[in-house]
Specification:
The chain has 280 residues and is α+β, with helices and mostly antiparallel strands. The chain is built from 13 helices and 5 strands. A 5-stranded antiparallel sheet has the order 2-1-5-4-3, sandwiched between helices. The longest helix has 16 residues. The chain is globular and about 55 Å long. The two termini are 19 Å apart.
């Protein structure tokens, strides 16, 4: 991706009237979304900062506790999605670490993966709640719940999924266990924001490096994702219960796979960019 591409410039825009047909939103909700989109459009900060500002205000509007934005590949039948970019707010290190581990567990993959792939099959932007994808009875009786979701205290979510070529950009907003599910109103608000910020899904989509992630084993994918969070070798080793030497070996394999020689170089390629998205 060329970070200087003018197509990534945020432009002020009104909400598409088609998105408001039979909308469960009030006039106040619409005014709030228009105001949010206008404020983000007027920002001059780097794209990642604008995206964080957008998501921080969106979770406040809908009463969520945390959010995560990701870019992934591998949503085809029988594939395990591999995330090549993360940005998040309101999540602890333990929560984000276990979310990443869960995403790459071939024996206990997230139950929502199959239904999400089916929803994405037409190639359109879709927004779904956890209950749209996985029923309570199925989730709460599953090993995935006991191993990953329950220990980090996370239950209901909304995912807004936007296909971008071979990749899928996902906005995820979350609520902890014991907090009620998201309403149709809140789902519509998230979908409207995703539909009206067409720059958001294209930030950090790799030009070609994403294909190389499919060459990584599940364990290397987890280490790769944690490296993209800026975690150092010691921190990764402690979280995964590995030795620092083992993680060092994994790092070398990952660097070799992407043709880089250091952690900072990996971050520049996938996270920080080359500065071309900053005016002036």
């Amino acid at each position: 991706m060329d970070d200087t591409d003018q197509s990534l410039e945020i432009k002020p825009q009104s909400i598409d009237p088609d998105l408001l047909v039979d909308a469960p939103m009030s006039a106040e909700d619409v005014r709030a979304l228009v105001g949010l989109l206008g404020r983000i459009a007027g920002m001059t900060e780097p794209l990642l900062d604008r995206r964080r500002a957008l998501m921080d205000e969106l979770v406040t509007l809908i009463g969520a506790r945390s959010w995560m934005w990701s870019t992934s590949t591998g949503f085809g039948p029988g594939e395990v999605p591999m995330t090549v970019g993360y940005q998040y707010g309101g999540l602890t290190d333990r929560q984000i670490g276990m979310i990443i581990e869960h995403s790459q567990d071939p024996d206990n993959e997230p139950l929502e993966n199959g239904p999400m792939s089916a929803a994405l099959a037409p190639g359109k932007h879709v927004t779904r709640s956890r209950r749209d994808l996985v029923a309570d009875e199925e989730l709460y009786a599953s090993p995935q719940w006991e191993m990953y979701r329950k220990p980090i205290g996370m239950d209901h979510f909304l995912f807004s999924l936007y296909p971008v070529g071979k990749y899928v950009s996902a906005i995820g907003v979350h609520r902890p266990i014991g907090v009620p599910d998201f309403t149709p109103r809140e789902r519509r608000m998230v979908h409207v924001v995703g539909s009206q910020t067409d720059w958001l899904p294209r930030v950090d989509v790799p030009d070609g490096d994403g294909e190389r992630t499919t060459d990584l084993s599940p364990r290397l994918r987890v280490v790769f994702a944690l490296l993209l969070q800026g975690w150092n070798r010691k921190r990764i080793a402690e979280h995964l219960g590995l030795t620092a030497n083992t993680v060092a070996g994994y790092q070398k394999q990952i660097y070799r796979n992407f043709g880089v020689s250091s952690h900072p170089e990996l971050l520049v390629r996938f996270v920080r960019g080359d500065g071309g998205d900053t005016p002036g």
